[in-house]
Specification:
3 domains, globular, Butyryl-CoA Dehydrogenase, subunit A, domain 2, about 375 residues, Butyryl-Coa Dehydrogenase, subunit A, domain 1, Butyryl-CoA Dehydrogenase, subunit A, domain 3, alpha+beta
Amino acid sequence: MALRVFDRIREVLPEVSRRGDEIEKLRTLPDDLVADLTAAGCFRMLVPHRYGGEELTLAQSLELIEDLSRADASTGWVVMIACSNLMVLGLLPAATFESVYAAGPDVILGGSHAPKGTAVPVDGGYRISGQWPFASGCQHAAWLVGHAAVLRDGERQFMANGMPLMRLAMMPASEVEVVDTWHTVGLRGTGSHDIRVSDVFCPEERTCQLFGAVPTVAAPIFSIPPIAPLALFIAAVAVGCAQAAIDDLVAVVVGGKRPAYGARRVAESLLLQARLGEADAELRAARALIHDEAHKAWSKALAGQEFSLLDRARMRTASSHAVTAATTVADTAYRLAGSSSLYDGSVLQRRMRDIHAITQHAGVGPDFFSLAGALLVGEEIDSMRI
């Protein structure tokens, strides 16, 4: 089954690549392309077999996200967000999870984990209000999540450890307003607008605790702590985008590009050859690192082993390192391509903007290195962050 979904998704890649400029101008994925991606199995890759999904391993899903991002980073990002949100859905009651997939496995999920909402307890659930940023793919999603602070009598509630009491609420997309805010330097085609609700009722069974909750669905993917692996998916998008930048550079120089007043082709430049070879090695190392973490996590999940804080922190640092390395590679390709990459019509320029948009995600920031470092020397950390 896994091989078939790989073949189906890869058959769509040329069309995704061809429509990259259109996707950016629309600021969202075209409906017909979403239909093609759905039919290929993009949104069911992590869904367990018993719900009709492909149940790919973590490493297999990273590979496909990278392939999609190599064709177009916005497309890879939207698929990545929709797929990885499944891990969060596994924290909801099992009956809720089953109801989401009762009609089939091709469910597009979206939303935001930013703590930008409020949840007021009422009989049977919560009244949810708020506006959340960065809801990638929200215009195509069936369900959207929002993270909300619990309020009683207008006052925020706190847990015993002093952290705010929060609920992640899952709402039908039909109940959520999309606020057109996505005007950005990169990843323009992701449609990562704000989403907004005002005093919407959300049943208790469609809410959960995001941090520290125990998954209710039995499958290897849900045996992995859900927060840290999300960064691996982000890193896969960056690696795919950087590989595309190398591809673009090679196409330019192999096509016979010559420097101004130069007698030799750019491809003959020893400096270009050295920097290209170095970039290729750096990117392959970044890819190997995130896949190594994915394989280790999957092995632990299959064996029913516990994930230590260091295990989780290393998934984070691998992801942050991979995004940094991929960005360096894309920047190198952009510079080596010369002045032609300045123009809006240059796909290499789009790759550069897209990958710098990825660097701004909080899930792959440089601060995760200090968390791993603290654990290595036996110091305590805020485990909620990993």
